[in-house]
Specification:
Largest sheet: 6 strands, antiparallel
Strand order of the largest sheet: 1-2-3-4-5-6
Number of strands: 27
Helix content: 10-25%
Strand content: 35-45%
Mean pLDDT: 82
Low-confidence stretches: 21-28, 342-346, 413-417
Distance between the termini: 92 Å
Length: 462
Amino acid sequence: MVRAKFYVVAVILGIAALLMAACDSESVSEVKNAAGARDAAITYLQEHEAQNAPSEGIEWQEEDVTPPGLVGVGTQEFTSDEWTIRVSYPVVLPENTVYEVVISSIKLGWHWKGSVEFDGSVTEISPFKQMSKEESQTIAEEFLSGSPTFLFDGIEDTLRLADTLTARCPYCWVFIFEFESRHAGYGDRTGQALAQVITPHRAVIGVEQGEITSAVMDEKWDMMNQEIIGKQEEGKPEGTLSVSDLLENPVYDTEVELYGKVSLLGELFCPCFELTSGGQKVQVWYDLMVDNDGRERPAISVEGINNGDRVVVTGELKGEGGTHYSKGDFWATAIVITPPVVSPTEVRVSVQASCDEFYQQPAISKEVEVAVGDSFRVILCSNPTTGFQWSEAQVSDQTVLKQTDHSFVPPGETGIVGAAGQDVWTFKALKEGESTVSTEYSRPWEGGEKAEWTFILTVTAR
C-alpha cells in the first residue's frame, strides 16, 4: 500500500516537473527586449545558415542609438569585431512588439534582415546573402524593372547593363542601364496623351550595402521620388533653398534655410536623416556635431518630426571634411515643420475614419460628392509604432481624381508614447465622373498581417 502511494506521488511530481519545464520553455521563447530579438534572429540564422551565421558565445557591445527626441520607437545596436546587429522596435506592450532586425558584416560582406515576434517566431524579409557586385546588380535591375516608367511601356528585350562603377564605400556600386520605351515621358502615364515614339532611356542606380540609395533616369527623372529633378517644390516657403539649389551652387559653412522632405529618420547609423527636394538629397545632422577644435554644437530636437514631413532646416553645409564629419554634411541649428501643401481654404470636404470605427468594423466603405476643381481629404487612424501602415492609395480612375499629397500627422502633445496619429491624403477632382479611392492597413513585410483594416471611398465629381 505504501509502495502504491509512493508511485502515485512520483507520478504527480513527474507531471508537475513536465509542466514546469514546459512553462520555462515557453518563457524562454518569449522575446521581451532587443537583446532577445537579437538572439532569436541569430538562432534562426544558425539553423538555416550554420556555416556563415554569427557563432555562439560572441561578446556584444550594446549601444542605444535611438535618435534624441524621437518618440514611440527605439533602436539598439550590438557590435562585435565582425558583426553589427541593429534592432528597431515600437514602444508598445511587449506582447504587441514586433522587432526589426538587421544583421550585417562589412568585414565578411554578409547582410540579412527580418522581423521577430513576441513569441520568438522569425520572418525573413531579406535573405542572408553576401553583398557581392553580382547580387547588387540584381537588386538594381529588379528595381528598374519594377519602376513605373519601365512597367508602363519599357521594351524588355532592349534592357542591358551599359556600365558598372565602383563607389568609394565598401560594397557600393553604381550600375548604368539602358533600355527603350514605346512612348515619350516618365512614370505611369495612364490616361495621358502620349507621343508614340521609341524613346531611349539611361538609368543610373546606386546600391550601397544591399540598399538602393539613388536612381536617376536621363539625368532628369528621380526614380525614387517619381518626379522631375529640379522642378519647383510645391509648398516651398519663399526665401528657402531646395536641396538641389544648394548642391548645384554650394554655399559652405554659411547659415541657410533648406526646404525638403524628411526620410530615414531613426534608420541611419547616426543622429541624422535625409532631406530631399528638387530630386536631390543631403544628410542632415542634429546631434554629435563636433568642430575640428573640439567644440560641440548643441543638439537640435526632432521630437514630433516624422518621415514624410516637409520641413525647413536652418543650418550650414560643411565644407572640407574634418576629424568628426564629412564634406557635404548639413549641420542643423533649427528644424521647423511646414504647413501642408494644400491650404485649408482649398479643401472643402474631409472624410474621416477613427480608430474606434475600425475596431468596430475593420472594412469601411464611404461615399462623398465633390465639385469639379475642388480638393478633399481622406483622414484615417494610423499608428506606425505597431508596425502597421496604410498602403499607397489606389485611384480607380485617375482621369477623374488626382492625388496631390499624402502625409502622416503625429498624435500631437498627448504625452502618450506610441499613441495613434493620422494618415492624410489630399485629392483633387479633375472632371465629372465617378472613381474610388482604396487602401489597406497592413504590416508590409513578408509574413506580416495583411489588410487588417480596409477603406474604400466612392467619389462622385459633379
